[in-house]
Design brief:
Largest sheet: 9 strands, mixed
Bound molecules: 6-O-phosphono-beta-D-fructofuranose
CATH superfamily of the largest domain: Glycogen Phosphorylase B
Number of strands: 15
Structural class: alpha/beta
Number of helices: 16
Shape: globular
CATH topology of the largest domain: Rossmann fold
Strand content: 15-25%
Distance between the termini: 47 Å
Number of domains: 2
CATH class of the largest domain: Alpha Beta
Strand order of the largest sheet: 3-4-2-1-5-6-7-9-8
Length: 475
């Protein structure tokens, strides 16, 4: 096969912010296949970017560009994170739409396409990641690219009734149909996408196996739940357990049991509900007061989007309230940290935890849930309390599944996790680990790339799906 070209807005070079879950998967694909990773360099400039800067790090090749300041704000803080992110996570109350921001999104996608195009060779395979770059295939085709292009959505895809709150939802769907292969985290996400296609193009547009036929071309769809490198995490967590930062943290617990949460600070992660649930847990089970410590690590991001500044304030108040009410001279109930740690240290913290809280109100997958399972000592594993609204719940059915809005239910699950007998903890952990091994990170990228190669084998027609009369959908 030719080179693999990964494209995402965020790339994991040091000068950009913490890369998050997407980077784990793309890095694994790059390490296995080599190739090029194209994206934003994390900087803004006063003018249009020139040629991409090539960086080679740890034998991987990156090509990056800065984005013009105003464009970046309207594209990234605006349409990507003020419109698509809340919409795709079902937060219509926090959703907004602005024509200018949508235009900037299209412009940023066209800019990515124009700077990527000169780097492409005929045999390349292009894999585009996530909601920032949905229009990239359309723009690449318009500029003459003929390589197969796949798209993977790392976040959920909303049901049609939510999707249609977006005035340009039909354009977004059409842009997704410009790919040769569109991948989702769960069957529910793919089902929502196909339902929306049926509404716009009719039931006959969706064929067997979830292929979509519109405008004389066929688009394959698939479900590729992203996984983790189970062995590597297990080893790194075991090694980190004796590292200085993890040892210091353990000593500071003075024998108390650890409840851990690790999330990028985002309103979709259900942190406010989690803090409230922990308070209710202390109220409902007073024998646990002073016996446990809740460590919540929540690095900041997207602070220019108002909703992120608001949730930050609310969380500070909430953790302060709990600590003010329950803390003692020698005990702080919640340790709430807005900073990041090296990945190995995080794995060490997760290994040390008896309970991990993943209470996302909606999440495409949630790799922390999977990392926690992979990081545990199988002889004495901790317990995962997992939101039934995270993609990971489809596979990790042996976790204690909770509704993230049911704070009393979460409180009870914490107590159950802390008092669960060893045999049950082992059995649940073994079953979860087996699921993780079956669907690990290597399977994720291998299956996607194999399917994209199969899509390449078909004769390519580059005609876009024609949009139906949109006025019918705009009221
Ligand atoms: O969940 C989607 C995602 O792309 C993650 O993979 C990643 O953690 C995060 O969003 C990156 O967000 P940002 O680029 O805004 O920091």
């Amino acid at each position: 096969m030719g080179r693999l070209i990964n494209v995402s807005n965020r790339v994991p070079l040091a000068k950009t912010a913490a890369p998050g879950g997407l980077a784990v998967g793309v890095l694994a694909a790059m390490r296995a296949r080599g190739g090029l990773w194209f994206g934003w360099n994390g900087e803004t400039s006063g003018q249009e970017p020139g040629e991409p800067e090539i960086t080679i790090r740890d034998s991987l090749t990156y090509a990056t560009i800065p984005l013009p300041q105003t464009l970046y704000e309207r594209f990234y803080s605006g349409f990507a994170n003020g419109t698509l992110w809340p919409l795709f996570h079902y937060f219509l109350a926090g959703f907004r739409y602005d024509d200018q921001e949508y235009a900037a999104y299209e412009q940023a996608n066209a800019l990515f396409a124009s700077r990527l195009l000169p780097l492409l060779a005929p045999g390349d395979l292009i894999w585009v990641h996530d909601y920032h770059l949905i229009s990239l295939a359309e723009k690449l085709h318009a500029q003459g690219a003929r390589q197969p292009i796949g798209f993977f959505l790392h976040v959920p895809f909303p049901h049609y009734e939510v999707l249609r709150a977006l005035p340009t939802f039909a354009e977004i769907l059409r842009a997704m149909l410009a790919y040769d292969l569109v991948g989702f985290q769960t069957e529910t996400d793919r089902g929502s996408f196909l339902d929306a296609v049926r509404v716009l193009w009719g039931a006959q547009a969706v064929g067997e196996g979830g292929t979509v036929n519109t405008g004389g071309r066929t688009v394959r769809t698939g479900v590729y739940p992203i996984g983790v490198d189970v062995e590597a995490i297990g080893q790194s967590a075991a090694k980190a357990a004796s590292s200085a930062p993890v040892q210091r943290m353990m000593q500071s617990l003075v024998g108390r049991r650890l409840i851990a949460g690790v999330d990028r600070l985002d309103y979709s992660k259900g942190l406010l509900e989690r803090f409230q649930a922990y308070r209710q847990f202390l109220e409902s089970f007073p024998e646990q007061i002073g016996q446990v410590t809740f460590l919540q690590i929540a690095p900041l991001g997207r602070q220019k989007v108002q909703a992120y500044a608001q949730i930050r304030d609310s969380l500070e108040q909430s953790s302060g309230r709990t600590n003010g009410r329950f803390a003692d001279a020698d005990w702080t109930p919640i340790r709430y940290l807005n900073r990041n740690f090296p990945h190995a240290t995080l794995m060490g913290f997760l290994r040390a935890a008896q309970v991990c809280l993943v209470t996302a109100l909606r999440d495409g997958m949630n790799l922390v849930a999977k990392e926690f399972i992979a990081a545990q000592d199988p002889d004495n594993p901790g317990v995962l309390v997992l939101s039934n609204r995270a993609g990971a719940a489809c596979e990790l059915t042996e976790a204690l599944l909770i509704n993230p809005y049911d704070t009393r239910g979460i409180a009870r699950a914490i107590q159950r996790a802390l008092t669960m007998p060893l045999a049950e903890r082992r059995a649940r952990h073994a079953s979860s680990l087996a699921n993780l091994r079956e669907n690990d990170i290597h399977r994720w990228h291998t299956r996607f790339i194999d399917d994209l190669l199969a899509a390449r084998a078909r004769p390519a027609s580059r005609r876009s799906a024609e949009l139906p009369e949109l006025s019918a959908f705009r009221h």
